[in-house]
Amino acid sequence: MDFAIPNITKPKIIIESSFLTTTSSGMGDKAKTESNVAAVQIRKYYRGCKFIGFLDGAGWYVRRSDLKKMVKSYSDVFTFSQSELKRFENFLKSLKL
């Protein structure tokens, strides 16, 4: 977890961020781990919590199968582009935290 909003004890949103400019075999491990975290830990211990991913970088573009696994793990996925950051801002406002 990179961020928990509003806090780690009672999160409404948990955010994981991954920006990769190169590829590596570790990306497959990360995809498997995120899938496990989403399927088991987030849904079990933080029911109703949104698990959000920020994924960006050429590394993910090249490793599309791992990217697909990552995307499936999250409630929603954003990139670091201006339009996506605006979409994330609107997402936060819609939750009325």
Write the layout of secondary structure elements.
Elements: E1 3-5, E2 13-19, H1 26-45, E3 50-56, H2 58-62, H3 64-73, E4 76-78, H4 82-95
Parallel strand pairs: 2-3, 3-4
Antiparallel strand pairs: 1-2
Helix pairs in contact: 1-3
Describe the main β-sheet briefly. Answer: 4 strands, mixed
Beta-strand level of the residues, as a percent range? 15-25%
Radius of gyration: 13 Å
E-strand count: 4
Q: For the terminal residues, how far apart are their CA atoms?
A: 19 Å
Strand arrangement, major sheet: 1-2-3-4
Q: What global shape is seen?
A: globular
Number of helices: 4
Protein described:
The protein is of the alpha/beta class and 97 residues long. The chain has one domain (3-95). The protein is built from four helices and four strands. It has a four-stranded mixed sheet, sandwiched between helices. Strand 1 and strand 2 form a beta hairpin. Helix 1 (26-45) runs parallel beside helix 3 (64-73). 20% of the residues are buried. The mean pLDDT is 83.
